[in-house]
Amino acid sequence: MNKVANSIHISVEWINASETSTKINPKLFRIIQGLIILGVILGIVGITGGGSQSSNGSFAPSTSSKAGILLYIAIFAIITIIFAKMLSKVSALPRQERPLLIHMPLALLAIAIRLVYGTLCIFVNNSTFSLFNGSITADVVMAVAEEVFVVIITIVLGFILPRVDPMVQGGISNENQLGAYQSQQLIQPGNGGYMKPYEAGNETGSSS
How many domains is the chain partitioned into structurally? Predict the structure, then answer.
């Protein structure tokens, strides 16, 4: 989910740079990243240190596990809303960045299926959906396959998108690096080249 948030963050930065209307605050993505880390911690604590045996001998998920999956669902909802809001302004994205618009919905769909499986394991917890003794088929079809799919399409996306200069590569949470990345994108409208995002905004404004 963090990879999808990073992809949307890049797209939002381009849109913000070329829009004068209401913008999405990039700091929101730092909050999202922090919540994702918190969800991971809750999940680990819930599996390694929580839970108990129910009366029928099955594993009963702990409160930490329940809080973790609910937090993930909330994060997924926020990311989906941001993506939906971004769709109305995709013209601000340079052509080379538009594969993100294919990657993100596919990744969100796979993550949604994975979240449904995790939710069923935590709150239903039966012979089919369980963290430890559920159906192997359900686990493979609704969890493993989705995780592998997201990894594969993210790797493919990395080969498709323009290469970032090594001097500005790094975590998306580093706004200085992201700004340096943006400043090196040279978009030429109409022929698929690059210009700086604020120049793209000026070009859009001057042509209207």
Answer: 1
Residue 67: partners with Cβ closer than 8 Å, 6 or more residues away: 42, 46
161 lies in which domain range?
2-207
Q: Give this prediction's pTM.
A: 0.70
- Whole-angstrom Cα distance, residue 40 to residue 194? 37
CB contact at 8 A, 194 and 187:
yes
157 near 10, Cβ under 8 Å?
no
- 20 vs 199: CA distance, rounded Å: 13
Q: Which tokens hold the place of 58?
A: 């099955």
> Which is it for strands 52-53 and 59-60: parallel, antiparallel or unpaired?
antiparallel
The span from the CA of 111 to the CA of 151, in Å, is: 11
Tell whether the model's pLDDT for residue 100 goes beyond 90: no
pLDDT of 198 strictly over 50: no
Distances (CA, A) of 176 to 41, 171, 179, 182: 28, 10, 5, 10
Average pLDDT along the chain? 74
Other beta carbons less than 10 A from residue 163's beta carbon: 8
Closest CA to 9 of 204, 192, 179, 185: 179
Say if CB 109 and CB 76 are below 8 A apart.
no
Maximum distance among all alpha carbons in the chain? 71
The rounded distance, in Å, linking the Cα atoms of 19 and 74 is: 28
Tell me if 74 sits within 8 A of 67, measured CB to CB.
no
